[in-house]
User: Fold this.
Amino acid sequence: MNDQAQTQAESREPLLRVVNLQKRYSRGRGWRRSRLLIEPLRGIDLQVHAGASLALIGASGSGKSTLARCLAGIERPDCGEVWISGRQSGYSENAHASGPIYMIFQDCGLSTNPRFTAAEIVSEPLLISNWGTTRERLHRAIGLMTTLGLQADAANRRAGEFSGGQRRRLALARALVLEPRILILDEALAGLDLSTQAQMANLLLEIQRARALTYLWISHDLTLVARLASDIAVMDQGRIVESAPVREWFAGPRSPQGQSLLQAAGAWRSRPAS
Amino acid sequence: MQKKLKFALLGLVLIHLAVLGARFFAPYDPAEQHRDFAFAPPMLLHWVDAQGHLHLRPFVYALVYHSESSAAGPYEDDRSRALPLRFFVESTTTHGNSQSAASGEPQRTNHLRLFGVDSPGEIFLFGTDDYGRDQLSRLLYGGQVSLFAGLFAAVLSLGLGILLGSVSGFYGSWPDAVIMRGAEIFMALPWIYLLFAVRAFLPLHVGAQESFFLLVGVIGLTGWARPSRLVRGVVLSAKHREYVLAARSFGASNFYLLRRHILPETYGVVLTQAALLIPQYVLAEVTFSFLGLGVSEPAPSWGNMLAELQKLYVLESYWWMFAAGLVLVPVFLLYHMVADAVQQAQL
Assistant:
């Protein structure tokens, strides 16, 4: 009875709820800190339901990546609240504060330490959270690597020896190894050739279905967004100006920023090939 | 590993082993005096005797002293007395000279030495100094002081440099400001005068061990500034790498980030610095002991062996007294080869 009530409450409560998140960067030390330079987040309100796939789009510098970093716990927001399935999470330097949100970075070549072997990279989150013994960690890392289509014998190769697509799989395996509920994909498919991109996209969709994951896409590529996302939120100058289900948005964006984004993409595609 | 690095490291290891094993390799105790053989020139090893017979076992000729000095000096080989070289000899050492023995029985110890000659007879392959002490033995024992003072001082200043540099680079903000201003003060400090000042506070005679640790302490503690600035630079660039951010997003502690991701980036710089600092600090010890601020007689160090050369007649007449200066050359070259090879390996 109680259980049922709770599940009901959970289904009404969004998995991720962000209230008035703000972040600003200032220059100077001590008493000069008041000098304001940029304000990438000026109050973000956002709700993502479990199993959804939200795409954050917007022009460069609109604050998408900063939002992602604040949610993943890499940066501390100046103000605002982040609720994950009804529980508030706060930033702290050491604690596993971001909770079950992990992020895949723009450039996977840079986000994996070239000194580490593949197995070390994938099992690093387990090591950090003191999960299991060395053997158990290795076993789990290799298991995940094989499900993501990396050979088990690749475990002892160093990160620098992998191709771009393989490195993305490594980064994905690392993000999945602690079984997160939300995965932030910051331009996760950018810079790959088309066939690899398609492979990765299919892999991500497969994983989402298999593990009931919620995705937060950050992308410039509206074609991919149209294929992969269920909802769209348009960001501009540190605010979310519009959010809508993906079909509705592509039929006609309401905000001028959204319109110009769609127009730009359309203009690009309808440009005659020369 | 490159050939060059292997060669240089092998050379350094051999030199350090020889110095550490001075008790075995040196034919005499460093303080043992042979008053009849002051400033004896280096003896030559012979295989062929005066009659033209070949000997399988090398030998030296005993020295005889002429009161009237000839062009070749006051000593001459006694061709009739060949002293064959004996290996693995059991030798008895009298600690302290005959003067101090007046206070009681001189201490005697027996131990194995690599080579020696049958008594009566002496072997001075690198000559002797004004008390008739064997230069080769003093060189080996003195290396224990000079080489290891450099090594320990470098370990001390690098340890301090890594600690302060990584704190400074990683935490930034006010610790960075405080540590870096401190480093600037230490870089501006004329440390030779600092040592003069520290030495002036201490009593006139300080034991060999105390002065060794004093030297290591002063050289090591004043030298941290440069390595700490280099480490800070590397840490500063490493801490914004994406894999460090990724590890942080998995909840890694600062200690974990430093240990697993950031400090490994500094190893190259630290190794190069070590290979450059050690010879520099060896030279510093030599300089201090040369000036009489370091390890004092009768304990030998390469610096106080060179101090004999402050006397003009020694400088002019007894070329073998430069031995301590000459051994510095290969040591320096080998360390600089290591530094060079390490730097090349990083590129």
Q: What stands out?
A: The radius of gyration of chain B is 25 Å.
